[in-house]
């Protein structure tokens, strides 16, 4: 009697052609995931605090001008608040876009180029934003007194 074996055909996974080589990243993706959750919660607090102070306190959106920003940034508290908001938003957004690039860029060269451009844009934005927050002068010299904030001496 002849023995017949019927093996089931092996169907490869739809993602097989796009599998990347294994790397030894450790727990980087886990930490990235945890950072996204923690920074998202903190950003909600920072952004809603920012919106409340800028839009609800005082005259609302009509009061936002150079003097308003100068008054806020003359306080170290608001400088740190806005700096945290800038840094967390940029890191959070950069990490999210990095994930999208890793998911959709199929070729290694394209993926690397996109991530280098992303990191470059994030660093430039964070550095320029930080410089603006800490070098902002609310009382510029030589300006007419009616254009200066009330706390500036003419």
From TrEMBL:
| Its membrane topology | Multi-pass membrane protein
* InterPro entries, sorted: SQR/QFR_C/D, Succ_DH_anchor, SuccDH_FuR_B_TM-su
Looking at the record's lineage, which domain of life comes first?
A: Bacteria
Q: What does this protein do?
A: Membrane-anchoring subunit of succinate dehydrogenase (SDH).
Write out the entry's keywords from A to Z: Cell inner membrane, Cell membrane, Electron transport, Heme, Iron, Membrane, Metal-binding, Transmembrane, Transmembrane helix, Transport, Tricarboxylic acid cycle
The name on file for this protein is Succinate dehydrogenase hydrophobic membrane anchor subunit
- Name the coenzymes or cofactors required: heme
Compartments reported by the entry: Cell inner membrane
Main subcellular location? membrane
Which example biological process does GO assign this protein? tricarboxylic acid cycle
Q: Which Pfam families match?
A: Sdh_cyt (PF01127)
Name the Gene3D superfamilies on file: Fumarate reductase/succinate dehydrogenase, transmembrane subunit (1.20.1300.10)
Annotated organism of origin: Luteimicrobium xylanilyticum
Keyword set includes Secreted: no
Q: Which GO terms describe its cellular component?
A: plasma membrane
Which pathway?
A: Carbohydrate metabolism; tricarboxylic acid cycle
**GO molecular function of the protein, one example?**
metal ion binding
For this protein, the record's NCBIfam families field holds: succ_dehyd_anc (TIGR02968)
Segments traversing the membrane:
30-57, 77-95, 116-137
């Amino acid at each position: 009697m002849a023995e017949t074996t019927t093996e089931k055909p092996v169907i490869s996974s739809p993602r097989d052609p796009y599998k990347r080589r294994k790397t030894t990243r450790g727990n980087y993706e886990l930490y990235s995931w945890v950072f996204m959750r923690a920074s998202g919660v903190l950003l909600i607090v920072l952004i809603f605090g920012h919106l409340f102070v800028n839009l609800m306190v005082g005259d609302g959106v009509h009061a936002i001008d150079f003097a308003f920003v100068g008054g806020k940034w003359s306080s170290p508290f608001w400088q740190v608040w806005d700096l945290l908001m800038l840094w967390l938003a940029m890191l959070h957004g950069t990490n999210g876009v990095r994930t999208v690039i890793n998911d959709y860029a199929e070729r290694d060269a394209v993926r690397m180029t996109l991530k280098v451009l992303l990191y470059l844009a994030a660093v430039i934005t964070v550095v320029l934003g930080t410089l603006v927050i800490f070098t902002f002068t609310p009382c510029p010299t030589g300006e007419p007194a009616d254009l200066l904030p009330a706390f500036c001496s003419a």
